[in-house]
Amino acid sequence: MDVRRAIGVSLSLAALLGFAVSAQAQARTKNAAGFDPDEQAMHDYVLTVDGCQRYGQAMQKVQGMQQDPAVAAEMRKVQDANVYNVEKAAMIEKSPKLAAAFKTLGISPRDFVLIPLTVMSAGVAAQYPDRAAKTMPYVTSQQVQFVKDHKDDLERWGLK
After folding, report:
1. Which of 22, 68, 95, 100 could form a disulfide with 74 if both were Cys (CB 3.0 to 4.6 A apart)?
2. C-alpha 69: how far from its chain's center?
3. Domain boundaries, the chain
4. How far is CA 44 from CA 57, 138, 141, 155, in A?
5. Res 18: pLDDT
6. Taking the complete model, does pTM exceed 0.70, yes or no?
7. Do the beta carbons of residue 157 and residue 120 sit within 8 Å?
8. How many other β-carbons are positioned within 10 Å of the β-carbon of residue 158?
């Protein structure tokens, strides 16, 4: 089983956007060219303390936002889309209510998606380095080291 698919994003309104680390598997495959934009985005993503802190702060604020019916409707549209996670982030940026909500949260939809996906993938790679080397080429050694170095912080920020 592809670990990235097991970490697929479920856009749940209860976590307004705690979509980024869901245990739901997405039934997508790589496109015809064999390219997975989520994997490329995770590979290129640089984890930072500031970004992870902002993610944690955003997650604390999202609970109150779920009451807005317009936000809920836009979220359902994104949630129901069978597209890559980076495409869901782009959909959020184009959704008026969701884009405005993210501005108030102080984090971009792309960061909100990629931070937990990257942390989760790097955490799995840290636990199973031999398997990850073969099945998770999109995880970098820097990401794995970040997760190891900030284990307690990541738990405090809701990322573990």
Report:
1. 95
2. 24
3. 3-25+37-156
4. 23, 8, 12, 23
5. 38
6. yes
7. no
8. 17
